[in-house]
Write a structure and sequence with these properties.
This protein has about 250 residues and is an alpha+beta fold. It has seven helices and eight strands. About 45% of the residues lie in helices and about 30% in strands. An eight-stranded antiparallel β-barrel has the order 1-3-2-8-5-7-6-4, surrounded by four helices. The chain starts with a helix and ends in a 7-residue tail after the last strand. One of its GO terms (cellular component) is mitochondrion.
């Protein structure tokens, strides 16, 4: 009986030891990588570069035939670029998994209407295409705007290391802009494929002039200035685009 008790105590001790090791490993991983994506949903960012003389024709064709594409997967938004890049369109597609996206691409390749009525006509109008796979950052969700307006896509190339290095400072810089109502935050997206350590922030404004006024006002806010100063220590470069929603964009 004594031997059995000793064996049980030893087994419990070993079990507690391994549980402690496991908990410590998970804690170290959380500290080293930062908050993690908790679901499989991702967003594909696609940018198409259009031949200048074909810009109007491309937008007209897409307006007429986009329903053939949205029959296969969810479109979050579709915009033409007004400032920050000429003759471009930018669109965001939502997927529940990589398997779903693969299935959608396979189905499109077998869809004769999509190929004959759209792809065969649209592709000669383009000079190039680009795509990135992104996740919403853990502290953000999609917030649809209250009415129609314009959008700003601000893209930040951060220093290597991921959110564990710059996540807190970046979040503070974004939330100080959003909370006082200077800007309506639609979503914050972190690259999974494409350039790494890249974060996209999608903002909404009533108009370009309202954006200019809000930006001027926020630059006089000491909280915004302090948060931005801390965040830029981790910043390598940034750029932005002003986007106009197309008639068929779910996000207006």
């Amino acid at each position: 009986m004594i031997t059995l008790r000793k064996t049980l105590r030893k087994a419990c001790s070993i079990g507690e030891h391994f549980k402690f090791r496991k908990d410590l490993t998970e804690l170290r991983a959380a500290i080293s990588t930062g908050p993690q994506q908790q679901h499989a949903t991702f967003y594909e960012f696609r940018t198409y570069y259009i031949k200048p003389e074909q810009n109007s024709a491309f937008l007209k064709l897409t307006n007429e035939k986009i329903h053939l594409r949205t029959a296969h997967s969810e479109l979050l938004g579709y915009w033409s670029v007004e400032y920050g890049g000429l003759n471009q369109v930018f669109h965001i597609w939502k997927y529940d998994s990589y398997a779903q996206r693969a299935g959608v691409r396979a189905a499109l390749a077998q869809d004769p209407q999509w190929i004959e009525q759209y792809i065969s006509k649209a592709m000669p109008m383009l000079t190039s295409q680009d795509n990135e796979v992104t996740y919403l950052v853990p502290w953000c969700k999609i917030e649809k705007p209250p009415k129609e307006g314009v959008y700003e896509l601000a893209t930040f190339q951060m220093k290597p290391g991921g959110p564990a290095v710059w996540g807190d400072a970046f979040q503070a810089a974004i939330t100080t802009h959003a909370r006082p109502g200077y800007s309506h935050l639609v979503g914050v997206f972190h690259n999974e494929f494409g350039l790494l350590n890249r974060v996209h922030v999608l903002w909404w404004y009533e108009s370009p002039d309202q954006r200019a006024a809000s930006r001027h006002q926020s630059h006089g806010d000491a909280r915004v200035v302090a948060a931005v100063r801390e965040s830029v220590a981790y910043l390598e470069s940034q750029r932005n685009k002003l986007l106009l929603p197309t008639p068929y964009s779910p996000l207006k």
